[in-house]
Design brief:
The complex is a heterodimer of chains A (233) and B (550). Chain A has 2 domains: 2-116, 3-Layer(aba) Sandwich (Rossmann fold), CATH 3.40.50.2300; 128-231, OB fold (Dihydrolipoamide Acetyltransferase, E2P). Chain A is built from 7 helices and 17 strands. In chain A, 29% of the residues lie in helices and 36% in strands. With 233 residues, chain A is an alpha/beta fold. By secondary structure, chain B is of the alpha+beta class. Chain B folds into 3 domains: 3-20 and 152-349; 27-61 and 76-143; 372-549, Heat Shock Protein 90 (2-Layer Sandwich), CATH 3.30.565. Chain B has helices spanning 3-20, 149-183, 188-212, 220-245, 251-268, 273-297, 303-319, 322-371, 373-389, 391-411, 419-437, 460-471, 514-527, and strands at residues 27-35, 52-61, 71-74, 81-86, 89-94, 112-115, 123-132, 145-148, 417-418, 440-446, 455-456, 472-473, 479-488, 492-500, 502-503, 531-537, 541-549. In chain B, the strands form 5 sheets. A 5-stranded antiparallel sheet of chain B has the order 1-2-7-4-5, with no helix packed on it. A 5-stranded mixed sheet of chain B has the order 10-13-14-17-16, with helices on one face. In chain B, helix 4 runs parallel beside helix 8 and helix 7 (303-319) packs antiparallel against helix 8 (322-371). The longest helix of chain B has 50 residues, at 322-371. Chain B is rod-shaped. The chains are: A alpha/beta (233), B alpha+beta (550).
């Protein structure tokens, strides 16, 4: 694990660092702590990360600009902030967890467990997927998303208007963040269930779904039952 | 005052003055000829003063008197002491012509004389006056007309009664606004309004005093002087009033030029009193109109109403006699002024309510400093950590926190506190931040003297301190140094707050941040306009300067 802490309160940064070390133990390769957004952005640009722990209010600056940057990255973002009222907005942008200050060891470990156990966040709050584009970060509303296809460490987001966006997060990580309306139907596909028109059963126990727009996507053999259960509930 | 009321009042007033001036026409006056012996008549005559002379004038009565009607002769504004012969019959006497130098002042200027009924028939009649003009030989002109005798007696009284009701209103307004001015001596406009009302009251009184007090022709001039002086001062005060309400550039110079011009008009043809008064009033009107026009252009509140009042004034001037138009015109202008005062009063009330609201808001802002989540939650998180990791330090941390809350509670309801208390607040904040940021913050102050009054609104330096902690980086030895310098003179109080450290983000301006807004609002609350606040980067860090005029 390669972890970055962005926090301007030294005492709190130390506390987070200590607890992170205690949790990840020897799986932790590197942990870095910076005190300003500028340093944080710089570090993100030049390093491969697995997790960013971000305070939203740093030196009087608004952390949401950095938040857009971090949620578009390949790694997960966990917010540690004093302003609880910003939690909802943070979840809309796609953070893995929001740890309100003051926090104890149990609460921060709960957040870390989501990474280790690949738990789904189980929140319906996600509103946007932040994608990197030329000229900056672009927010894709998840209402406009048809399905998402895994492409190695990246994912391709297929939109209702026929366009395609690239996201740096893996399908695994996105499935943790996306609301329940998205269903994993295949090791490479996450589909919005409301877009599914019908399930096609082919010979030789092969399955597929046809979407409202006519596209046909494969359904994994192990995923079929769960999908059927969801659709016919 | 409501605009509707103003409108109705003006309307009723116009109706009143215009109807009161209507009267039936009874006679024509012919040319007047003069004689020293009642025999040789000439068109012109040289008078030395005091000698007896005669005037002969033909008066044509245009209608016969109806049953029981008596005609009267009106010789108002005719100077001198005289005996009146109507068709050769002596019908009245005013003083003792020819004996003025030896007798007391007898006779008066505004008095009708009864014409015997048998001499009142339609047709031409001869009016001969046996006159002397001891006190004013140059005023030998004659003013004569015939009207119903009762009307000549009653009408001036009725008119005077109405005008006095009116004058009473202005006297009350003058007193009322003078008392208001006594309550708040900075309100110059109220004083000017009060004086204008009083002068106007005086003007009406002086104009109509002739109806009930006998005025000898030799005293006429005194009355006219008083009237023209009253008009002069009104003509100066009204534009000053409007210029205070609708401020324009180079006001003093323009007002001085105007006053100079008015003085010129005042003295140019001074003895032609009515003309002088009228010209001064017209000058005042044009100047006021220009000011009101400027006010409308600049969108000053109430300027449109004042402009309207001035237009009504011009309208009255067009339809009414000189006296009436002067009074009615002034009255409408005074109403316009009153309307402006009511607008100002409303504005002041709103401003006061606003200031109360603002004070409450500032108090809340101060309280929020200690409970806003960013401060409180970060402090508590650090505190938990200290308690878990080094309990004895944690206790010190809690004590520092208690200290800051304690000082905040003490100053919460104040608008100004001694600088010593403010420093206490800052020091307790520094203690807390030491625990949170683990930076060695150093406080220093200079020029603080417990024996003199050094005041500051609460949490102003505290806010600057917070800003510095947020926006500055510590030195390489992990130190940050603050210095407060108080500089007190008899008239000013200056506070300079210096931060020695590196600025985190040079581009980022804090001048429109909530912190600065709080500081400025607090200074305005206590000192109005009499303060300055500057904030700038220096080579060593940051410098804030607050200067207060005491």
């Amino acid at each position: 694990m390669n972890i970055l802490i962005i926090e301007d309160e030294i005492r709190i940064a130390k506390r987070v660092e200590r607890m992170t070390k205690e949790f990840f133990l020897n799986t932790l390769q590197k942990i870095t702590s910076v005190q300003s957004l500028a340093e944080g952005l710089d570090f993100i640009k030049n390093n491969d990360l697995d997790l960013v722990l971000l305070d939203l209010n740093l030196n009087g600056e608004n952390g949401f600009d950095v938040l857009k940057e971090t949620v578009s990255g390949a790694y997960h973002t966990i917010i540690i902030s004093a302003n609880k009222h910003e939690a909802l907005k943070a979840f809309e942008f796609g953070v893995l967890d929001f740890v309100p200050k003051p926090f104890n060891k149990a609460r921060i470990e709960l957040a870390f467990n989501r990474i280790v156990k690949k738990e789904e966040v189980g929140t319906e709050n996600l509103q946007f997927l932040a994608v990197k584009k030329r000229g900056g970060i672009h927010l894709v509303n998840i209402d406009d998303v048809n399905y998402i296809k895994g492409a190695g460490v990246y994912t391709e987001i297929f939109l209702t208007n026929g366009e395609k966006e690239l996201h740096d997060k893996s399908l695994e990580k996105l499935s943790q963040l996306l609301p329940k309306s998205f269903e994993r139907i295949h090791k490479s596909y996450l589909v919005k269930t409301t877009e599914i028109k019908e399930i096609i059963v082919k010979t030789g126990s092969q399955y597929a779904v046809e979407l409202q727009n006519g596209e046909i996507l494969p359904v994994g053999r192990t995923k079929y039952k769960a999908l059927k259960a969801t659709l016919f509930q | 005052m409501n605009f509707n009321y103003l409108y109705r009042f003006v309307f009723i007033f116009i109706v009143l003055v215009s109807t009161s001036c209507q009267h039936t026409f009874f006679s024509w006056k012919g040319e007047t000829v003069y004689s020293v012996n009642n025999q040789n008549w000439e068109n012109e005559i040289e008078l030395k003063g005091g000698e007896v002379f005669f005037t002969k004038t033909e008066i044509e009565i245009v209608q016969n008197p109806v049953e029981f009607q008596t005609f009267g002769l009106n010789l108002s504004n005719t100077f001198g002491e005289f005996e009146i012969f109507w068709d050769g019959v002596l019908i009245g006497r005013n003083g003792n012509p020819g004996k003025e130098s030896k007798s007391n002042l007898t006779g008066e200027m505004w008095k009708p004389y009864k014409i015997p009924r048998h001499l009142s028939q339609k047709g031409t009649h001869q009016l001969v006056l046996k006159r002397s003009l001891f006190h004013a030989p140059e005023y030998k002109g004659l003013n004569a007309f015939v009207n119903d005798y009762d009307y000549l007696l009653e009408h001036p009284l009725i008119y005077t009664a109405f005008m006095h009701i009116f004058a009473g209103g202005f006297l009350l307004a003058a007193l009322y606004f003078f008392f208001i001015f006594l309550g708040n001596k900075s309100e110059k406009t109220i004083l000017i309004f009060s004086i204008s009302c009083f002068l106007f009251f005086g003007l009406i009184l002086m104009e109509f005093i002739r109806t009930y007090i006998s005025i000898h022709y030799s005293q006429h001039q005194i009355r006219m002087e008083i009237i023209s002086y009253l008009t002069f001062f009104i003509a100066i005060l009204v534009p000053i009033y409007f210029s205070l309400q609708f401020s324009f550039p180079k006001r003093k110079v323009i007002l001085l030029l105007y006053t100079g011009f008015l003085i010129y008009i005042f003295y140019r043809n001074h003895l032609r009193y009515d003309e002088t008064s009228y010209n001064m009033a017209i000058t005042m009107w044009f100047f006021s109109f220009a000011i009101a026009l400027y006010g409308v252009y600049k969108k000053y509140k109430g300027a449109l109403i004042v402009l309207l009042a001035l237009l009504i004034c011009a309208f009255i001037n067009n339809i009414a006699y000189f006296d009436t138009s002067l009074f009615a015109g002034f009255a409408v202008i005074v109403l316009g002024m009153l309307y402006m005062l009511s607008i100002k009063a409303k504005e002041q009330r709103l401003a006061y309510e606003n200031s109360l609201l603002q004070s409450t808001r500032l108090r809340l802002e101060l309280l929020k400093k200690s409970i806003q989540p960013h401060f409180l939650m970060n402090t508590l998180t650090s505190l938990i950590d200290w308690v878990e990791e080094a309990p004895d330090k944690g206790v010190l941390f809690i004590e520092a926190l208690a200290e800051e809350f304690d000082v905040l509670n003490q100053v919460e309801n104040e608008t100004l506190i001694p600088i010593i208390q403010e420093i206490k607040l800052c020091k307790s904040h520094i203690s807390i931040m030491k625990f949170r940021k683990e930076i060695d913050y150093i406080w220093e102050d200079e020029g603080i003297n417990e024996n003199i009054k050094q005041l500051i609104p609460p949490a102003v330096i505290h806010t600057l301190l917070e800003n510095s902690i947020t926006h500055c980086l510590p030195s390489d030895e992990n130190k940050m140094h603050f210095k407060l310098i108080a500089f007190t003179t008899d008239n000013t109080q200056e506070y300079t707050f210096l931060t020695f450290g590196k600025i985190r983000n040079q581009q980022k301006s804090t001048s429109d941040g909530t912190g600065f807004k709080y500081i400025k609002a607090r200074l305005t609350e206590s000192y109005g306009e009499d303060w300055t606040f500057t904030s700038e980067a220096t080579n060593e860090g940051w410098k804030n300067t607050i200067t207060i005029q005491k």
